[in-house]
Design goal:
112 residues, mainly alpha, Arc Repressor Mutant, subunit A, two-stranded antiparallel ribbon, 5 helices, 62% helix, ArsR-like_HTH
């Protein structure tokens, strides 16, 4: 299961630092130094977070001379969103049926 894309995406998103990095990258490309700025951690620690995000396919690192910009990749997020939506729709339908059943019971109707 370690190679499962969806599992890698959710595992990467489980950490608040990585989510903050993705939020920053949603505004545009940034270097490791720029990404590390708001955090009270070493560049090495930020780099480890970036490796997790890169392994999950959530970011890519370019090369422009000495500058190595990181950029957000949205495809894994789209896949996770589709998975969540599919199950949210199922859960909503089940809750709607439960709500109808509770209302029926409250009205004193018998189920046949």
């Amino acid at each position: 299961m370690p190679g499962d894309r969806l599992s890698l995406t959710f595992a990467a998103l489980a950490d608040p630092t990585r989510r903050a990095i993705l939020a920053r990258l949603a505004e545009g490309e940034a270097t490791v130094n720029e990404l590390a700025e708001p955090f009270d951690m070493s560049l090495q620690a930020v780099s480890k977070h970036l490796k997790v995000l890169e392994r999950a396919g959530l970011i890519t690192r370019g090369r422009d001379a000495q500058w190595r910009p990181c950029r957000l990749e949205t495809e894994p997020l789209d896949a996770a969103s589709e998975w969540i939506t599919r199950y949210r729709d199922r859960w909503a339908a089940r809750l709607d049926r439960l709500d109808q059943e509770i209302k029926r019971i409250q009205r004193g109707e018998h189920h046949e």
